[in-house]
Amino acid sequence: MKQPIIAPSVLASDFANLEREINMINDSQADWIHVDIMDGVFVPNISFGLPVTEAIKRHAKKPLDVHLMIVQPERYVEAFQKVGADIITVHVEACQHLHRNIQQIKALGCKAGVALNPHTPVVELENIIADIDLVLVMSVNPGFGAQKFIPNTYKKIESVKKMIQASGSNAVIEIDGGVNQQNAKLLLGSGADVLVAGNFVFSAADPKKVIAGLKAV
Ligand code: DX5
Ligand code: ZN
Q1: 8 lines ligand 1 (CB under 6 A)
Q2: What percentage of residues in the chain have a pLDDT greater than 90?
Q3: Domain 5-215 falls in which CATH fold?
Q4: Ligand 1 contact via 9 beta carbon (within 6 Å)
């Protein structure tokens, strides 16, 4: 099986030692740095915003994978590109004009992703799949780290994969929430390409070893 792209989520890191945490990711086998932006409106939690993302970028040697869990993301897409986002993902549930939002992200030179909440059907992607670089399948309800993985995700990945193949899209499938060494293999077998992991990585005594384990699954 091909190796997954691993994206540790800094939401679970020690914010008081952000430079150390980013250096750990730099020195690890991780591929991307997952940056969770929460506005307290789209999701019932507030994480951090532009200045912290800019601080992460200052130390990052890997692409920033920015996951916007915010309403009206079009208001902030350009600002996140300016502070260093390489990939920007917006939620289908938060966008009234998703196609326009995707064009906006691509025009800024970023890769564009679309995220689906656990209850959102895959068919929502049908008319946008050919235009995007990434589909983010939420495997927990967005808003918090360290939640329990929702098993319906496997089925959902298979449908997204079928849609990608049928449309000739080059989009990769990213899974976010409750990822660990136990479910990683089945996720990849179902068609996932990118694994986000927060708590599983940062609560470990040796996070680099955990990242290497996910990479080698
Ligand atoms: C949840 C966030 C996730 C979160 C994942 O709303 O989008 O990226 O950080 O954390 P774990 O891996 O702990 O579920
Ligand atoms: Zn996320």
Answers
A1: no
A2: 99
A3: TIM Barrel (3.20.20)
A4: yes
